[in-house]
């Protein structure tokens, strides 16, 4: 299930991007959920008070970015696959993106994969740093991939094993 039917507009995304000052401090969540549906597992997954309590089950999640430590524990709990953690402090030239990935085959750590944007278009190559696929993830593995820093707000999916055209 996808949270949104189409691809979010730049205006939509602008309401979700963590402030630059917060991004400079380390990993932080970005929630790309734009459709009001009765759903709140993101809120119950966050033990750090970063995702604000829903007044109404149909509310869109609201984030206190200063409370987010970038743990990523909310990523696999979102049925809409709408939650990402971005770390723009990874290195001088690279950021990391942690994303939900429900396709097979799964990549392995160290593997080079295609980097895709929100529309599924290939935008580059990146290296998988971490694959989380335990009991907690419950069949929604979480992949952390290194990406060129300028693509931290662009890469939202990967393709394993082969080029995307
Ligand atoms: S990444 Fe961790 S701290 Fe941040 S919103 Fe998700 S669960 Fe909460
Ligand atoms: S769990 Fe996902 S789809 Fe549901 S409200 Fe939170 S971000 Fe939106």
From TrEMBL:
Pfam families: Fer4_7. Signal peptide: none annotated. Residues 59-88 form the 4Fe-4S ferredoxin-type domain. It comes from the Bacteria. PROSITE patterns: 4FE4S_FER_1, 4FE4S_FER_2. Keywords: Iron, Iron-sulfur, Metal-binding. One of its GO terms (molecular function) is iron-sulfur cluster binding. InterPro entries: 4Fe4S_Fe-S-bd, 4Fe4S_Fe_S_CS. The keyword Glycoprotein does not apply. This is 4Fe-4S ferredoxin. It comes from Biomaibacter acetigenes. The lineage of its organism: Bacteria, Bacillati, Bacillota, Clostridia, Thermosediminibacterales.
